[in-house]
Amino acid sequence: MQHYTYQPQGVCSRQIDFDIKDNKIYNLVVTGGCNGNLKGIATLVEGQDINLIKDKLKGINCNGRGTSCPDQLSLAIEEYQNKIKRV
To answer: Which pTM was predicted?
Structure first.
C-alpha cells in the first residue's frame, strides 16, 4: 500500500491523505474543510478505483472558487498518477 499526501489549494481543507493499493483508494482523510461532507466522501470512495473517483469529482466547483475539496481530491489522484509514472 502506498501513502500519498497532497496540499490542496483554493479550498478550506489544508491536507488530503490517502492510501493506494491495486489502483484503489483507502483511508482518505481530509484535514480542514466541511467535516461531515468530507467524511461522507471518504466513506463513498473507500475501495473505489482511482480513475473512477478522479473522473467523477474533477471540476466540481464550491461557491465560485473554481475548485472544491472533491475537485482537489481528483487533482491529488492525478498528481499521484503522474509521480508513479515517472518512477
So the answer is: 0.95
